[in-house]
Amino acid sequence: MHPLKRLIDYGKDYRQQIWLATGCSILNKIFDLAPPALIGIAVDVVVKQKDSIVAQWGIKDIFWQFAILSILTVIIWILESVFEYAYARLWRNLAQKIQHELRLDAYKHIQELEVAYFEDRSVGGLMSVLSDDINQLERFLDVGANDLIQVSTTAIIIGGAFFILAPSVAWMAMLPMPFIIWGSVFYQRLLAPRYADVREKVGFLNSRLANNLSGIVTIKSYTAEEYEARRLEVESEAYRQSNRRAIALSAAFVPLIRMIILAGFTALLLYGGVEAANGKMSVGTYSVLVFLIQRLLWPLTRLGDTFDQYQRAMASTNRVMNLLDTPIAIHTGDMPLPVNSVRGELALRDVTFAYNGRRPVIEHLYLDIPAGKTIAIVGSTGSGKSTLVKLLLRLYEVQAGTINLDGIELRQLNLKDLRSCIGLVSQDVFLFHGTVAENISYGSFDATFEDIVSSAKIAEAHDFIMQLPQGYETIVGERGQKLSGGQRQRIAIARAVLKNPPILILDEATSAVDNETEAAIQRSLERITQNRTTIAIAHRLSTVRNADCIYVMEHGKLVESGRHEELLDRQGIYASLWRVQSGLK
Q1: Residues 187 and 254: beta-carbon distance below 8 Å
Q2: Of 15-19, 142-146, 281-285, 376-380, minimum mean pLDDT range
Q3: Minimal CA–CA distance to 198: which of 309, 324, 104?
Q4: Under the GO molecular function aspect, what terms does this record hold (predicted)?
């Protein structure tokens, strides 16, 4: 489907405002074209005086003829100004509304997409669509749409006036029109793929910039500034060259159109002047035609800029609409799940999962997690532990088998309800740019300050928070970069405490902290895991030795299970891992 048709379908709720804006643009152009006609009538009064067009209205006095023309001029200029204000306001507000709704819809749609979608795309590329492409569309609606409407209105009105006033020379003035229209369409087709390439290249450039700014510490620590500058130069040069190819074509449009316009204007100037001199055409009519031919043909030179904006906007529209058309792979179930009714019993039956194009990470897995108990899942790197967390949250969909919560398959449950009953404390803590209090209450937006402080105390975060410059109102920076790893981890635990979910998942929650911080986190975890189902994904076996049951995974399969002492007695994989970590041979 053509991008313009996709945009019109999307903006169906704004059709009344579009028609109103279009009407104001047309009326503005009608009144804008009236002054040349008044000039022609004024010339006619000067030449014919009491036999002029105005005199035929019954007004013979020369003064009153000019007075009438002056009054008409004032009225027309006022109306032109009124409708110019009206169309400018309507089109700009329409552009703001559509870009706002389109950006919001695109963002909401992105949030509904599965995690796998983001693994194949860069954040910078998506940012380019949400920002640059939608802004490009806004710029076209601000100016370009009105230009197209007014040029079309001009061609219709002036073309009709020519055939009424001077049919003998009208064809000369109209002769360039087919060539101009054909040239515009031809250029449009040539420019479309070039601007599509421009939008793609700017996406790559934004991706590089976003990636480098996120990894600025790594760049500095490895003294890779020059290397990254060269890589950015390659992306920026590709964008520049892509734009250069588009500009080389679009810049030629106006000069070529001017040459075609010159033919029509010269023909009218010559043959119209001869007919006026020979008395076959009135001097007033000739004056009107000379003014009108300029008002018709010279604005057509702006078609180059207008079509340039149009092609950029259509390329951007395609990218935004393709994003909106991306199918959602993980759909919510219909069954509600009140949080206070969840017991937290989980059962995995013959679960198999593989990332796109890879070998299975989890294969034929059977696992039972009793309600209200603390279980641990351990294993070597790549054994499928963290993938299991993503499956429980339905960030990915199992490819075979089922996962049940309290006897109900996850796919049948309302997705928002499912995730509301699970609290996740990950090894990769993400804090938003904002205050400490805002980050603790994230997801529990109606929490009081007292609730926030209470949760922080349980997570043993209150003391260090009070030592920060503004306490709970301290800004943590992007991704919490102003805080240490242990501080971020404790804020994440406080966030989970405040959420108070019936199921708590700890994914390597103490993997990147020192021993003292780990001890503090362990004390807080012992308090918050009481009377709730807790799943601890761990690499450090010392952190899960007191779990009710420990499951050992290897290559996506369950190979051992039992309590700490039982697994040590078996002298299997767990015992081997324990000896390595505890320094025993």
Answers
A1: no
A2: 281-285
A3: 309
A4: ABC-type oligopeptide transporter activity; ATP binding; ATP hydrolysis activity
Three-class SS state of 61: coil
Bridge-based pairing state of the strands 549-554 and 374-379: parallel
What contacts 24+ positions apart, CB below 8 Å, involve 464-468?
464/490, 465/436, 468/436
pLDDT at 23 over 70: yes
If phi > 0 it is left, if psi is from -120 to 50 it is alpha, else beta; for residue 394 that is left
pLDDT tens digit string along 325-345? Answer: 888 888 888 899 888 888 888
Q: Which of 315, 358, 429, 442 is nearest to 7 (CA)?
A: 315
pLDDT over 70, % of the chain: 84
**Token duo for residue 111:** 């949030």
Would you list the DSSP string of 251-298?
Answer: TTHHHHHHHHHHHHHHHIIIIIHHHHHTTSS-HHHHHHHHHHHHHHHG
3-state DSSP call for residue 260?
helix
What is the predicted pLDDT for the residue at 47?
64
- pLDDT over 80 (residue 188): no
**What pTM was computed for the model?**
0.74
Cβ burial of 256 (10 Å; 0-12, 13-18, 19+) is middle
pLDDT of the residue at 528: 76
**Arithmetic mean of pLDDT over the chain:** 80
Amino acid 521: pLDDT? 66
Q: What is the DSSP string of 438-492?
A: HHHTTT-TT--HHHHHHHHHHTT-HHHHHTSTTGGG-B--GGGTTS-HHHHHHHH
Q: Which domains does the chain have, with CATH numbers?
A: 95-324 (1.20.1560.10), 339-421+501-582 (3.40.50.300), 431-500 (3.40.50.300)
Distance of CA 579 to the CA centre of its chain: 51
Locate 557 and state its tokens. Answer: 């399969």
